Amino acid sequence: MIEVLPYQEAQFGEVDALWRAVFPEDPPHSHAAAAVPQKLAVQRELFLVAVESGRVLGTILAGYDGHRGWLYKLAVHPNARRCGIGEKLVRAAERRLAVLGCAKVNLQVRDTNHEAARFWAHMGYAEEPRISMGRNLA
Questions:
Q1: H helix runs in 8-76, sequence order
Q2: Hey, where are the domains in the chain?
Q3: Which CATH superfamily is 3-122 part of?
Q4: Mind listing the pLDDT tens digit for each residue in 42-84?
Q5: Which pLDDT tens digit goes with each residue over 59-69?
Q6: pTM of the entire structure?
Q7: Which of left, alpha, beta for 51 (phi over 0: left; psi -120 to 50: alpha)?
Q8: Counting CB atoms within 10 angstroms of each CB, which of 41, 59, 72, 138 has the fewest?
Q9: What whole-number distance in Å separates Cα of residue 23 and Cα of residue 117?
Q10: Which residues contact 14 (CB under 8 A, 6 or more apart)?
Q11: C-alpha span between 36 and 47 (Å, rounded)
């Protein structure tokens, strides 16, 4: 049975391996070595893992700034896809954000990741007319 639980630090190695498999082109600031400690310092309860028989099969990170919620790092092990793990992770994160008073959730998908865009559309998310902008402060 798959459970969605808060991340535990003993799961770092599995999360790192999962993210390397699912996000091979992520920049260094998004790798587990940088991102996990940052997330644990802020709203650690919004870092969720999907576990079956003690094995991490998926992750999602969420954040809430008091105005908008965000979802990041939805990752499901390639051999465990299409089993409902992604949906369980998303719905668990949404419930936690709603408890905090979050009324709107945002996320970003790379424009080349058509599979992810289809998944998010299936989950009820819609493309919005926005320009995504960012600046690296490091």
A1: 12-22, 32-41
A2: 3-122
A3: Gcn5-related N-acetyltransferase (GNAT) (3.40.630.30)
A4: 999 999 999 999 999 999 999 999 999 999 999 999 999 999 9
A5: 999 999 999 99
A6: 0.94
A7: beta
A8: 138
A9: 15
A10: 55, 56
A11: 9
